[in-house]
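In this supplementary section we document a worked example of the pipeline. Step one takes a protein sequence of length 138 as its only input; no multiple sequence alignment statistics are reported here. Step two produces a three-dimensional model, which step three serialises into structure tokens for compact storage. The input and output of this example are shown verbatim.
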Amino acid sequence: MRVIWPLLFLPAMAQGESLVATRPIAAGSVLQPSDMTQVEAQIPGALTDMSMAVGQSARRVIYPGRAILATDVGPPLLVSRNAVVELRYRSGSLHITASGRALDKGSEGEVIRVMSLESKSVVQGRIVADGSVVVGVP
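The serialised model returned by step three reads:
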């Protein structure tokens, strides 16, 4: 007679939770709790907590039943390509503002290229919370 008791002590496959879309989510839309649900499945790369996705922006279309991957979402865009933005430069007591056209899209904290509407020169700047672009900041 064979002993099969070691099989009883093998660890069970670890199950986790993953987020999946409950409806089509358009690229660029901000995710709401009603857009997703948690399922009992460990999907590689999928977000596991709703708080990690709610308020984030979809970077691509996410179809119903598909896992919401960390690479599918990001901070909401504040500046879209070709939008007119305010350029700000500050050095000590010197404050300069100008209008520019965004050559890239971006979220808060990202560095984008902007063309000055007056001089047509292209500068790089960091997007701040109000949607303006600060130039000359490392």
